C-alpha cells in the first residue's frame, strides 16, 4: 500500500484532500465577493510518451499539466476564468476575474447549477486509476517489441511509420456551492504501431493500438 501511495504522489503534486481544500477556498472567496453561486474544477496530469521508428528512438515527451477553472454566478449572470497557478494569490485573482466578468455579462435564463437533490454524493468507485511507473528506456524497449512483432508477421512488412508507448495519469476535483465536492484519479495507457507492407511499387500502411486503464492488461 505504501509503495502504491509513493507512485501516486510521484505523478500528482497534490492529494485529493489538498485539491478539495483548494476548491473550498475558491468557493468561499467567490461567496465573499458577492457571488450567489460558484463552481470550480481543479485538475492535474502527468504523462510520458515515447516513439521509435525502425528500432531507433524518435521522440520522448513528458508532460505535466495543471489547471483551475472557476465559474461565478451573480443571479443568472455567469463569468468564467482559469489559471495554471495554484498559489493563493493567483487563485483569488482568478475568482475575482470570474466575478467581474459575471458582473458585466448579460443574464442567461438557463445559467445555473444543479440542485443539491439531483447530485450524486456517493459515486461508485469505477477502478479507473492504475499508475504505470515506466521510464523512457523501458517504454522505448516496449515500442521496439511492438515494431519487431509487426515485422515478424510477414516478410512483405519491411518498413514502419513507428511504434509508440504512452502512460498518462490524471486527477480532478469538482466542487459547487450547491454542496457537491468530489473527484478521482484516472489513467490511460496505450501501445501503438503503424507498419508498412510493400511489394514492388505497391505499398499499404495500417496501424494497430491497444488502450487500457491498467498497463498489465
Protein architecture, described:
This protein is 29% helix and 42% strand. The protein is of the alpha+beta class. Strand 1 (37-53) and strand 2 form a beta hairpin. The longest helix has 18 residues, at 16-33.
Given as residue ranges, the uncertain stretches (5+ residues, pLDDT < 50) are none
Alpha-carbon distance between the two ends: 20 Å
Order of helices and strands: HHEEEHHEEEE
Radius of gyration: 23 Å
Q: Major beta sheet, specifics?
A: 7 strands, antiparallel
- The helical percent reads 25-40%
* Overall pLDDT confidence: 93
- Give the class from helix and strand content and strand pairing: alpha+beta
Share of residues in strands: 35-45%
Please count the helical segments.
4
Note the overall shape: elongated
Number of strands: 7
Give a short overview:
The chain is of the alpha+beta class and 217 residues long. It has four helices and seven strands. Helices cover 29% and strands 42% of the residues.
